[in-house]
Amino acid sequence: MRLADERDTSAIRSAVHNYAEQPACDWVLGLDVDKANAALADWVATGKAYVIDGYLVLVDEATPWYSNSTYLDEWFVLKLYPGGSLDSIPPALANLAKQRGCVAVMGGDSSPAKRLDAAYRRAPGWVPAANLHFRKI
Predict the structure, then answer these.
(1) DSSP symbol at 113
(2) How many whole angstroms from its chain centre is CA 86?
(3) What distance in Å separates the CA atoms of residue 128 and residue 78, rounded to the nearest whole number?
(4) Which residue in 89, 78, 60 sits closest to 23, CA to CA?
(5) Which residues face 76 on adjacent strands?
(6) What CA–CA distance (Å, rounded) separates 79 from 19?
(7) Which of 52, 68, 101, 124 is the most buried (most CB within 10 A)?
(8) 86-117 pLDDT, tens digit each
(9) Phi and psi dihedrals of 106, rounded to 5?
């Protein structure tokens, strides 16, 4: 695991372009490639983007409304490089949360195939916590 940086810009742009060609999720509406690239560049510039086993993983820290404790939240995962395994992501996030002094880490999967969800379910200590629903208007 390492922080994403300018070395990853080309791979990020390519992955966003490929994603735009075939959005995998029904909830991806009005995808703007330039906006997506700019947003991901912001995550990289602010040190909230990691490369974990070939995947770009966006994270942020948050304090829930019910607690004074900090959680690490995984916000988005995007395949950048060949090889790698989604199974690497849950333990890497748990280690990152410990390094940052967080009391917990949250991750999810909004893709139809639910491959990342399966990786979370296989990882020791991870349990399902919530569901998210979507309606197109």
Answers:
(1) T
(2) 11
(3) 21
(4) 78
(5) 58
(6) 10
(7) 52
(8) 999 999 999 999 999 999 999 998 877 889 99
(9) -115, 140
Q: Which amino acid is at 98?
A: K
> Cβ contacts of residue 102 below 8 Å, gap of 6+?
61, 69, 70, 71, 72
The alpha carbon of 121 is separated from its chain's Cα centroid by a whole number of angstroms, namely 16
Listed in sequence order, the residues at least 6 apart from 51 whose beta carbon sits closer than 8 Å to its beta carbon are: 1, 2, 3, 4, 8, 57, 80, 81
Question: Taken in order 75, 78, 83, 85, is the CA torsion positive or negative?
Answer: positive
Residue in 68, 49, 69 with CA at minimum distance from that of residue 60: 49
DSSP 44-62: HHTT-EEEETTEEEEEEEE
Rounded to a whole number of angstroms, the distance between the first and last alpha carbons of the chain is 39
pTM comes to: 0.93
CA nearest neighbour of 133 among 19, 62, 27, 59? 27
